[in-house]
Design goal:
The chain is built from 13 helices and 12 strands. The longest helix is centred in the middle third of the chain and has 21 residues. The chain has a 5-stranded mixed beta sheet, sandwiched between helices. A 4-stranded antiparallel beta sheet has the order 6-9-10-11, with no helix packed on it. Strands 7-8-12 form a 3-stranded antiparallel beta sheet, with no helix packed on it. Strand 10 and strand 11 form a beta hairpin. Helices cover 38% and strands 15% of the residues. It is an alpha+beta fold and 439 residues long.
């Protein structure tokens, strides 16, 4: 007997034993008094079996007839054997004029093993984590791509720094995308304003960790990770988005409030927004920031000079100097100045610094080396000495070939182990005085 039938049995027994009246039993079971009388008669005649539903183990009166089910299954096996239930339902309705619910088709396909039901994943439970005690102990960092200017400018990304102890916004920075130089520029502004935090808490974006499948690359540092290591700032990658929920929730709030505030303020671009954001941050923190458990700011002061910061927040790549005092970096050959002092760097590994403002510096043991640029991108190769009478034709051919190289992107820089040039150009244009040092 089912749980409902067991409850019904207990109530009818009480009626038969005159513990309660039939009118009381009707209220308990939400049935009419006449139906209670029928149940009492069934119980007295057949006992507990008289209260069991007679429809049990019998097919429903509302089910589709077997002929229709067989017809539908035959059609699916013949024409739609690899279709899902939803698509199969649409085709049966459009082509064969058989209108059934998707759930009915799904159950019929499962019964003949034409469809394997998906197992619903068990919902993970993420319990809240206690806040850190001090300001600057853990800074949650995340990028939020969104149409921040509501069509008044191109879509862009907002880099958000949230203090874990107070939920206060420490820094905001608009950029084109979540690139290494974008995070470097934002982090440089952050530490110049607040100092060095103990740790940054981020996701598993390729800017923060090497996501290659090979085990030998797992322990390598990214350019951003290398910069934080030189600054003695710990970088922690969260395993799930829920682990850094404070910055994730702040992104939702900013996508609502910040968009409207910039509309009211008439902000129509990245440059204007980055200059205006400080006033918004102050107002936001007055409303939403919470007091820390301990009134202690653990941000550390910056001891690095502006030149050292300029070097740290650059894209650094090692290259080996050839016997002819040359190196290749990003499809460009660099000719190191031929001097007595530079001859000892032959066959040595030197460091190429690619700065956010587009400058290139070549250093050996911290000392800059003078160099000239010899562009090694794909060129026209005549392969023979050209006579004067053929010079016009060769030049015309060279112009056509150069246009082809430009249109096909063959003269663009490599992006395998070098920064995005577009991001460099944007940052240099947006804030040419972002760095105090120039090369």
């Amino acid at each position: 007997m089912s749980t409902k039938e067991l409850q019904k049995l207990e109530t009818i027994q009480n009626v038969c034993d005159k513990r309660i009246r039939q009118i009381d039993a009707s209220k308990i079971l939400n049935l009419s008094r006449r139906h209670i009388q029928r149940l009492v008669n069934q119980y007295r005649q057949f006992g507990a079996n008289g209260l069991i539903s007679k429809k049990r183990t019998k097919p429903s009166n509302r089910q589709f007839n077997a002929t229709l089910k067989k017809q539908v299954i035959d059609l699916i096996q013949t024409h739609y054997v690899d279709f899902g239930p939803t698509l199969a339902t649409e085709k049966l309705s459009e082509i064969h004029d058989i209108r059934l619910s998707t759930e009915t088709i799904r159950k019929w396909m499962i019964s003949v093993k034409l469809w394997k039901p998906r197992v619903k994943k068990r919902r993970k439970i993420y319990q809240p984590r206690a806040r850190r005690d001090c300001i600057g102990e853990l800074i949650q960092l995340d990028g939020s791509p969104h149409d921040w200017f509501e069509g008044r400018a191109d879509k862009c990304t907002l880099l958000v720094f949230i203090d874990d102890a107070t939920s206060a916004i420490m820094h905001l920075y608009f950029c084109d995308s979540e690139s290494t130089f974008s995070y470097m520029a934002a982090t440089k502004q952050y530490i110049e304003q607040h100092g060095k935090p103990v740790a940054l808490y981020t996701d598993k974006h390729g800017v923060f960790r090497v996501n290659h499948a090979s085990n030998k690359d797992r322990n390598k540092l990214t350019q951003y990770g290398r910069a934080l290591k030189e600054l003695n700032i710990e970088l922690i990658c969260a395993n799930t988005p829920q682990a850094k929920g404070r910055v994730e929730r702040a992104n939702l709030t900013l996508q609502d409030r910040l968009v409207k505030e910039m509309r009211l303020a008439g902000i129509n671009g990245i440059e204007e927004a980055n200059e205006w954001l400080s006033s918004f941050i102050d107002n936001y923190n007055k409303r939403f920031a919470k007091p820390a458990k301990r009134q202690l700011n653990v941000h550390r002061p910056i001891y690095e000079t502006p030149q050292e910061l300029y070097d740290i927040f650059s894209w650094q790549t090692s290259r080996k100097v050839t016997k002819s005092l040359t190196i290749q970096y990003d499809k460009v050959m660099y000719l190191i100045e031929k001097t007595l002092e530079n001859e000892h760097v032959v066959s040595k590994n030197i460091m190429v610094h690619d700065y956010p403002d587009g400058q290139i510096d070549i250093k050996y043991l911290g000392q800059s080396l003078d160099y000239n640029i010899f562009d090694k991108l794909e060129r026209i190769n005549q392969g023979e000495i050209v006579e004067n009478k053929r010079l016009d034709a060769v030049l015309r051919l060279a112009m056509v070939e150069q246009e082809r190289l430009e249109s096909e992107g063959l003269r663009e820089r490599s992006r395998s182990d070098t920064p995005r040039r577009q991001e460099q150009r944007r940052q240099s244009r947006m804030n040419p005085v972002m760095y105090d040092q120039t090369k």
